Amino acid sequence: MSDIIQLLPDSIANQIAAGEVVQRPASAVKELLENAIDAGANKIQLIVKDAGKALIQVIDNGSGMSVTDARMCFERHATSKVRKAEDLFAIRTMGFRGEAMASIAAIAQVEMKTRKHDEELGTVIQIEGSAVLNQEPAATAEGTSISVKNLFYNTPARRNFLKSNPAEMRHIIDEFQRVALAHPAIAFSLHHDGVEIYRLPSSVLKQRIVHLFGNNYNERLIPVEEETSIINLKGYIGKPEYAKKTRGEQFFFVNNRFIKDAYLNHAVNKAYEELLADDHFPLYVLFIDIDPANIDVNVHPTKTEIKYLDEKSIYAILHSAVKRSLGRFNISPTIDFDQETGFSGMITHKAPEEIIPPSISFNPDFNPFAEDKPAVTRESAYASFPKNYSGGRGNIQPSTKNWGSLYEIANHSPAEQSALDLPGQESEHQFSPVQKQLMQLHNRYIISQIKSGLMLIDQQAAHERILYERFTLHLEDRKGASQQSLFPQTVTLSPNDYELAKSLLDDIKSLGFEVREFGKNTLVIEGIPVDLGGSNINETQLFEHLIEGFKNSQQELKLDKRDALARSMARNSAIKNGTVLGQEEMNTLIEQLFACKTPNFSISGKPVIQTIGLAELDKKFDK
Question: Is the pTM of this model over 0.85?
């Protein structure tokens, strides 16, 4: 029997490894940026075309490579960062396995230009599917420029699984933000299809956060700093009032390497426990500096998971440091017995000659019995009191006028009695039979009498259901009516949210929005859905909440794009608990609710209507 086990060719082995290392264009971006950082660059440019499917180019001014190194870097397990096994427990660089370049070269067409600072000529090397096509000397700039073209050209199945360009671009921006946050001293730039998305100068961490996420983040940040024998912690957390319903602005870095850790994330969330609702997530950018011997980074191919030697101590330090920072900046409620609570802070010390004593002025010619009274008199001051106010000892004498009409009411039926008022007095409330059937409880629930008892309706959940079905219909027939705004509003989004909004633009217009692109990361809102025309909500705020709610629906429920958009729109546009409704508004709400396909359940699957029967009520009263 012949042997059946054989070694795989390098090209096939590299393609298999690429499946773990390079899952999408963003994975290649991450590896190339980290290599540029390891090369000591202080200026890095990222150029992307067709969301990385056509081109990913990284240009840096790092140390560059020699002719031999330029060829060796594309071999599997060829690395300059590890020499022996012990080096794995003292890693300070971003990469160390030597798999990234070999994996990228196996599934793309790669061209690399590199030159060391002390050499006159550099090297150009071209590789396609792990095969070296050309290598020759060339005049090139100091540092390294790597162009990755036609990613997954020889693995069409993997290419077919890629998402749309806006979706893939959002992943690239995510990776770019993580690398840029970890190295604020390095200048970065990002261009997509010839449009500049980011130009980040060398700066400190707080400025880098503001440059990445927007100028309004400057007032949202609270510094965190803690030095212990186990770890050194520094960074920024966000104020509770700016927390969002979606994850995405939570960044942990261990020795400048971005990681994902649910255990440490719980430590931060627990510090916000009494300050945030359960479905809100705070912003944080936290850096943990720890001895590499106490962690293991060789756990996952993407190196986003780390094992700790003493994770419980790290949890406790992180939790207490965040909580202390929240208290120090008067965010969390605390009792400060040293704080001055008297009136001394309200007293200003002035010279005696500057103090003006109070004086009383009056009109000596005032006559309350004069015929021609001035416009403002003592009588007008008491005009709000009843006409029959006696003026003595605060007694009010009842009027005897029309006393006989009190007995006329008894001659009418009970239904007519409720609509009658005394003669000579104006009616303030006229209750129709329909109005008597509805009542609002705590401005949250609508109570209606039914034949078998009473019915309770959650007004917010009911309105969400009505709007959800209406918006779903608009998305299907693409005929959402729009009401033009008198003054168009501009909304500036983060680059990530801007790419998301562009991918949803056709569906957003179907809902009734009139939106168009307007420069860098900015949209102009020229109209809103007719259904929202009477609301007082700000157009810019509504649009931002729409995008935020869409991300939340997709993250939590993995919904279809249009379904998630309709849910987000319904949740942000519906009336909220605490809204006072008139009788006509309550009647309209109930009519529209029972016209829905599924009136009994909210868009989150919870009940909208509850009925309480007479038998259940009788049992409450022991009848």
Answer: no
